[in-house]
């Protein structure tokens, strides 16, 4: 079984549809959250969306992650926004390469 590449400890990506002739591969962006089941609190991943384009996946990942930091952690400068966007995009690119290597 292949593990899902994890990005920044809060997101993961996985293949939901293998490459088929004439059809794009669907890649899922997943976000970890905490859920309590039967009195036990555990971390689970929930699919945020499915993508046929890795660029759209990265756009949404960066938007969600940076938005969280702006609202919760007080990101206040454009330069920190740009730096964080670049860092997340590079992590996503590495995770996508890992996913491609495991499924091609």
Question: What do you see in this structure?
Answer:
- With 104 residues, this protein is of the alpha+beta class.
- Helix content is 44%, strand content 32%.
- The chain has helices spanning 54-73, 78-103; strands at residues 6-7, 11-17, 26-37, 40-51.
- Strands 1-2-3-4 form a 4-stranded antiparallel sheet.
- Helix 1 (54-73) packs antiparallel against helix 2.
- The mean pLDDT is 89.
What's the structural blueprint in terms of helices and strands?
Blueprint: E1 6-7, E2 11-17, E3 26-37, E4 40-51, H1 54-73, H2 78-103
Antiparallel strand pairs: 1-2, 2-3, 3-4
**Discrete helix count:** 2
Uncertain residue ranges: none
Large-scale geometry = flat
The largest beta-sheet arranges its strands as: 1-2-3-4
N→C terminal distance = 15 Å
Average predicted local confidence, pLDDT: 89
What is the structural class?
A: alpha+beta
How many β-strand runs?
4
| SSE order | EEEEHH
Helical content (DSSP H or I, runs of 4+): 40-55%
Radius of gyration: 15 Å
Sheet bearing the most strands, described? 4 strands, antiparallel
What proportion of the residues form beta strands (DSSP E)?
A: 25-35%
The oligomeric state of the chains shown is single chain
